[in-house]
Amino acid sequence: MVKNNNMDWWLAGDQLWLDQITEEIVEPDLPIIDPHHHLWDTPTDRYLLDEILEDTNGGHNIVSTVFVECNSMFRADGPEALKVIGETEFVQGIAAMSASGKYGNTRVANGIVSHADLTLGSDVRPVLEAHIAASNNRFKGIRHAAGWHQDSAVRNSHSHPTEHLMLDDQFQAGLQVLSDMGLTFDAWFYHEQLPEFIALANNFPEATIILDHFGGPLGIGPYQGNLDEVYEKWCELVAPLKNNPNVLFKLGGINMKVNGFEWHKHPQPPSSDQLVDATARYYQFCIDNFGADRCMFESNFPVDRDSCSYHVLWNAFKKMSSGYTDQERQALFHDTATKAYKLSTD
Length: 346
Fold this sequence. Notes:
Layout: E1 2-4, E2 7-9, H1 15-18, E3 31-37, E4 40-41, E5 46-47, H2 49-56, E6 61-68, H3 85-99, E7 107-114, H4 125-134, E8 139-143, H5 169-180, E9 184-187, H6 194-203, E10 209-211, H7 227-238, E11 247-251, H8 272-290, E12 295-297, H9 310-320, H10 326-341
Parallel strand pairs: 3-6, 6-7, 7-8, 8-9, 9-10, 10-11, 11-12
Antiparallel strand pairs: 1-2, 4-5
């Protein structure tokens, strides 16, 4: 911890803060695909190839990763709908660097999930075709985040969604095009929107739909301090997805500030045991109710870096899954992601 004027202070997510907790790697040889991380370069933060490799090279056997959109490197010029192609072009370059083998064995961004505005309806097709052209071997699908809440204490998604976006006719028309093209749809929203998401999933039984971050159980604003009540409500709302076998689950992204565990307010980051104690019930509910073949662990880095370190997070995943069979664990750490995104395993 850093000292300043005889007062202890810390910056959550800072390397000095994270380095206070280091652990021996659990099962270091277990092959892992990390199906959800971001890459960006902003005036205040950088997470590019060097930075993600610092995390993935921390002792776990991360064989490949999937990049997920984050408004990174959109084109400055050209038609508005096609500016998003800049993100695929940017990540394709990093992926090509990683695929050279000069940076180690991890294949960063072996899959790319970018953004396209589904409210374009049928007009979203040329946008998707442009993504494919920008990375024919890695582009897998899109995420159009729909997180919306009436309380100003809960920040809406970076894509500036309207209320009930997932029920919008144009949005669903765009999703139909995405599905027809055999591309995946990553969904991100907040837990009270689960009924809308289920209605969407019911309308698209042939689409490969991937639910990010457990469907966003909130722990801030009107939900602050009510972790148990939110969990019980979430269980009730998410349970009907048992009837939607085309919906897969990313298990992770629950250590963000929005989830309310407040790891970032502590003088030290959590250990893997602390993460297990606080969050394992979410993971186990999904695995037990939906099956390991529909679930995959995810890091959501560097966003979750505000709360814990990469090696500690994957230790927690290994500990909370220790009671499952070898086949189930292979699905959770590797095979479900491979299937969902049709990843190359060469």
